[in-house]
Amino acid sequence: MSLEAAPEAPSGASPAETSAGTTDDWGDGAKVRRAWSPRGFPAGLVALLVGGVAGTALYIGVTARIDRAPRWSRDLLERAQTHVWRDDATIIAGLIAAVLGLWLILLALTPGRRSLLRLRSPGDAMTVYMTRRTAASFLRHTALASSGVLDARVRMGRRKAVLRVDYHFRDPDDLHDELIERLEERANALTLARVPRVDLRLQPVSGR
Amino acid sequence: MRTVTNRILLFLVGLGLIGGGLGLAARGRGWYPDLVHTADKPFITTSQAERLTDHGWWWWVAFGAPGLLLLLALWWLIAQFGRRPVRSLRVRDTTAGAGDGPSGLGTGFGMVGDEADTLTVTGNALADAIEDDLSYVDGIEHISAHLVRRRHGPTLRVLVRAEPGAEPRALLSAVRDRVLPNAREAVGLSTLPTVLTLRTSRGLPKRHLD
Fold this sequence. Notes:
The complex is a heterodimer. Chain A is about 50% helix and about 20% strand. Chain A is an alpha+beta fold. Chain B is built from 5 helices and 6 strands, in the order αααβββαββαβ. Chain B has a 3-stranded antiparallel beta sheet. In chain B, strands 4-5-6 form a 3-stranded mixed beta sheet, with helices on one face. In chain B, strand 4 (about 140-150) and strand 5 form a beta hairpin. Classes of the chains: A alpha+beta, B alpha+beta. The interface between A and B is large, with 81 and 80 residues. Strand 4 (about 125-130) of chain A pairs parallel with strand 6 (about 195-200) of chain B, so a sheet runs across the interface.
């Protein structure tokens, strides 16, 4: 997996991450940058297409020069020299090419790697990432450790973790307070550069 | 470097596609400017093509431009493959940290050259030793380490699969305070940039009622 630091300015830090960054020798969460994808797959695909077009053009040129052009290339050249490009197919092809171009520009300008969350650096030239699934798994493990919790589903965003917890035989207010405290503590302990806010939704099993 | 190159080239190709696509659509609508052709004629007529091929330079352009483009595209494509592993490292000082222990870089461990003053160790041997050292850290289920070449020197890439109950802070502290110093000391590097990605196993089953 290839990862590179983002050449972008860091986003604003939440109070939690700022305080976390000053309490130990780990890097400040406000100073870390997102991972930028190398965009290897689209780059390889475009390189393949460009190479294919260039190779075909070269082949047509060489075979035409030695008067051994295949029939399809002669048909293609003849079509280019006789066809009047003024129809719906031309418009649609042009618009498709423009949309593809826009998509490539978006790929070039956006960081990608949305599934990776950056952690505060422990120092010593270390760059650490955690997948969203991993962060969700850590939080789910913490929720399941509480008594009365049957199951927990976590949707992990960059700023917020939404937990839907199924429970039974517990007072919902007590459970809510207990879980919020544990989950926030756990979220802080993950050392994420941007500590996610915990949004907890309790669902009694009888209510399903 | 690959990231920057890829993004610049993708941006340029994207610009070209937008320009060409909009030009083609404009021509299809009959809005194409009449500077060179009218909209009701082909892009290039047979007589124009014949006149073009009469010039001596034409064939150089016809072969050179696609040939150059083909070479560039091949270079770009090849650059996407392979992580450029570090094949061997020259050990600068073998007197410290090269003994037995979890680092495992003692005598005879993956060395590819053993002359009087120089000692080289394969990148895989160092990566294996780091994996071995990491396996002693609590909360880790599986490790995969690779040493890759970057502009500023070798870089360590580590993929760690941790238990869902693991403490990331403790785990990373162990890597920072024990594993990396061991590795650096073993091969005499003053710094070893490290990119570590933390994952967990598939999660826990829901709790069942008994």
